[in-house]
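Lab notebook page, bench 4
Experiment: in silico fold of construct C2
Operator: M.H.
Input chain length: 299 residues
Purpose: comparison with the prior construct
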Amino acid sequence: MRFVFFDLKGELEDDPTSAQQRKNRTQFLRQTGAKYVRLIQQDLPINPLYRHPNPTQNAQVAYEIASPIRCFAPQLGAKQERNICDAYQRLDAPDFPALAMELEQSGANGVDLAIVQKIDRFNLFASAQTAIRPEEWLGGSLVIDFKEFRNDSDTKALAVALILNFLMKKLDQNLAVKGGIQPLKMVLFVDEAHLLLPKEGKAGLLGSLARQGRSWGFPVWLASQDADAFITTGNNATNFAELAECGVHFSPHTLPDAQQRMILGGVIHREFKKAEAALRLQGKLLTGTARQFWKEGGK
């Protein structure tokens, strides 16, 4: 099964100081056939910007691009968002170099231009001329490493949002059920998902994928060391426990009973032994042992 793995903290990097980590990494990449990409050091061969031939629908596309930029750039206001939309709609072949140039030529000199220029200068994506087709890019499994963003969490989250929006627009087709089973195109894994969840209620990309992904054959797995990271409140509240068909939890005892019920659908009153986990699957709560994929040759 193909997958896209978002490694937000760069834990799968090639660590020359750890022989065991390098061995595990090599085994994982060999067994899965995944391609490893560290952003900023390398670019993705895709262009997340595109133009719709219908002007009205293209205006909607422009807002769908500008909205995540505003959501993940807290200093961006409504006026700057509109500037990005207007500049986007004037482009015949939108990409980040062209969008940055159009904003600059239109007189923008604030945070709107600065954010688009940063994405352009980080060289995260291909141009409109060099980008490959989404089907070609998604022809195999991918590990996308975000460690080079370091503490720039806003730009990291924006990069994730742009990739997620690209995936949603290119994979939004329902797959017919065959023999009572939903076929899968690909699986999306987001490691250290708590780095995105506090912002999720605004942009809704992970929530939208979680809702639609199963029928599209594109299920979403979110991982975090802290189970309570999946409990968001206020304006950013997103009930991922309600959206999830499956959840694996290694430390439910760290949660109060009320939060366990919310996430697990039940309460576990004991601490787990090493490798034990709780599995919530389609409303049922089970416990048992888990193991790492790369052990025993993946068998």
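Observations: The first strand starts at residue 3 and ends at 7. The mean pLDDT is 86.
Next step: discuss at group meeting.
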